[in-house]
Structures are given as structure tokens and as C-alpha cells.
Amino acid sequence: MRPMGTVATNPTMLIDIPSVPDRTLMTASQEHVLSLEVLFTPYSTPGGWANSSEPRRWLEIWNSLMQSEGSDKIEKWRVMTPENYENEFMMHKGHTPSFGASPLSTFFGRNRELTRYVTSIDGLFLSGAATFPGAGIVGISGKNAAIAVIKKIRSSNSRRTYK
After folding, report:
1. Across the 163 residues of the chain, what is the mean pLDDT of every consecutive 10-residue run?
2. DSSP letters along 109-129, please?
3. DSSP string of the chain?
4. For residue 58, how many other CB atoms are within 10 A of its CB?
5. Burial 99-125 (b: 16+ CB within 10 A, else e)
6. Which of 133, 126, 106 lies closest to 18, judged by CA?
7. Nearest partner of 54 among 16, 75, 80, judged by Cα
8. Are 94 and 85 in contact (CB under 8 A)?
9. What's the pLDDT at 147?
10. How many Å apart are CA 86 and CA 93, to the nearest integer?
11. Rg (CA), the chain
12. Nearest alpha carbon to residue 16 among 136, 143, 147
């Protein structure tokens, strides 16, 4: 058990490779991007994040969970700490709200405005970290919401009758 205000011994991690669904996020040399996020991370850490060994520990924990190769395939990486989220994305105290529904509710399309991006208000669509798939700043929910808007426009156009 670690003291309050520190990262858990076995932290909850979210792994994403945003360059798989969106190839424009690949590096200039056509490498994929691995995003590893640790939830419930304190805003500050003794000695500051710049001097912290935590990010390396997170990568080592992730690597220990992989069947084989794991971090051997990682050529470059960066860490996103609460300070980074606050400075780069203007998120107060680095708070990244994320999708709060269960995978099963997503499968059944419950909370439709969060899983299908369409609300009961005609023309209002939702997107952001609190919509599926959520969990960080990867832009996939924005892409999914844009697809929902396009489908709505196309279905509206196909039902129009011209005189």
C-alpha cells in the first residue's frame, strides 16, 4: 500500500494506439504511437514529474504484462502527466474525464448519446473524452461523432422529395 497522493503500486492503465484507426497520427517515419495512461495519478509528485521514475515504472509494469516482445518494439515514447494535460490541453489539474459506462452497456447501445453520439435534440451530437471510447485525448470519439453526423445528413437527404 502506497501513501495517499502517490501512484498505486499496481496502477490502473489504459493502453491505446491512436495511429491504428487514424493513420495521420503515425510518426513521420510511419511508426505507430503507443499511448499509455495511468488513471488516478496525483497532480504533483515529490521532486516533480520531470525527475520522477514513475513513467518508466509504468512502462515496465505494462511490459511485464505482455506475452512477448512488449517494450522491445517501442522505439520512442513520451509520458503524459497531469502537468502535461494541464499545460498542453488546458485541463485543470490534469483531469481527463473519460467514458464512464461499462463495456456491456456500450455493446447494447445504452446511453446512446455517449455511445452513438446522437442526442434526443435534433442536430445535437456529442463528442469528447466522456463519450465512447473516451479515456484520454486520442480523437477517435470525434471521428465517430463526425461519422454519425454524416450518416444523419445522408439519411435526411435520401428522404427528401423534390417537386
Report:
1. 76 81 82 80 84 89 78 74 79 65 69 83 85 67 89 82 57
2. T-SHHHHT-B-SSTT-B--ST
3. -PPTTS--SS--EEEE-TTTT-GGGS-TTS----EEEESS--S--TT-GGG-SHHHHHHHHHHHHSSSSGGGG--------HHHHHHHH--GGG------S-HHHHHTT-SHHHHT-B-SSTT-B--STTSTT-SSS-SHHHHHHHHHHHHHHHHHHHH----
4. 18
5. beeeeeebeeeebeebbbbbeeeeeeb
6. 133
7. 80
8. yes
9. 92
10. 6
11. 19
12. 136
Say if residues 62 and 94 touch (Cβ distance below 8 Å): no
* 133 closest CA partner among 26, 43, 17, 23: 17
Residue 57, amino acid: R
**Surface-to-core class of residue 38, CB atoms within 10 Å of its CB (0-12 exposed, 13-18 middle, 19+ buried):** buried
On the CB side of 54, how many CA atoms lie within 13 Å of its CA? 27
Maximum alpha-carbon separation in the chain: 73
Q: Does a cis peptide bond (omega within 30 degrees of 0) precede residue 133?
A: yes
Q: Are 142 and 149 in contact (CB under 8 A)?
A: no
